[in-house]
Input
Amino acid sequence: MSSLPTSCSLVFLQGTMENDGSLVARSNYRWNDSLITKTNAQIQSGQSMLSIENDLTGKDFTASLKGMNPSIIEGGLKGIFIASYLQSVTPSLALGLEAVWQRVAMNSSPEALLSYGARYVGSDWIASLQMQSEGPQGSGISSSYWRKLTDKVSVGTDLSLQFAPGLSGQGGLMGGGLQKEGSASAGAKYEFRASTFRAQVDSKGRSSCLLEKTILPAVRVTFAAEMDHLKQQAKVGVGVAIEATSEDLMEQMEKGTAERRSGLMNRTPVPQHHGRPQEAASSDNPPVQVACSESSAASGVLGCYALSYPAISTDPTEKFSAECVEPESHVTIASLQISGA
Output
């Protein structure tokens, strides 16, 4: 049995109880670097759910065995059991299979399902294919493709096709052929400096978008909208997530903000102008002060240069300009031009 790193925990326990009596409990136990057991239990509104999962990770494969609501107290085995195995054939190609066995009650017959999958990872794209063998709910094929266009933009598509046993036109008996149902969807993701935008459309006439905005390292705001064009329905939602932040991180944030403000206050103004060099302002012609105040934004503090220009110029066609720039990236946020004409 191999040794564990000092930063790796053997046991993880988490539980939540609501005022209505519902309980959610999770636990993880790591046997070694490769094997971990996960347990999840839920009790809500008189219903209970228990799942036990074992994950084994090797050098070039992963294997998993999961049981949901397993029981033998009724004289037999019932529940849902899922076993999966994924093997890397090459550094880019991986093949796997998944088997599902379930029995809801002892008076019902068990059902089994087997599916096969493949995944290929390229330099900037990933493609996957899954085939489901014929079972009580029929068979199906699903494929997906993801590609990274730039450092900030990525797109993806998903295609699914299901084949289910149909009903004959006489008496509703089985054997009337296969019912085919397919769906396709396409989406895109764009990452800004402090936010992420996602959009998706599908073949069922639905379009949706989601915007996640990071206000502070511990505060995140989410805006979501979905429209169903066929059903003439629309949904809009907003969410706010606040995460606990350690005192050390808060002190670093406050220190960084103070340093940025101090650097902006001590920065020497550099006037920018067009035409001949700027003349010194006399006491009779005091300079015009053009300044931009600091503004807080999700991407940081925007600092602006404070510039001064002569109030009166001997050349009436001469123009002067001022720019408001972000101190880190030096990107122009706003500009102002003054003309003597």
In short: The radius of gyration is 31 Å. Residues 1-7, 167-174, 269-318 have pLDDT under 50 and may be disordered. Residues 42 and 49 are 5 Å apart (CA to CA). The longest strand covers residues 174-191.
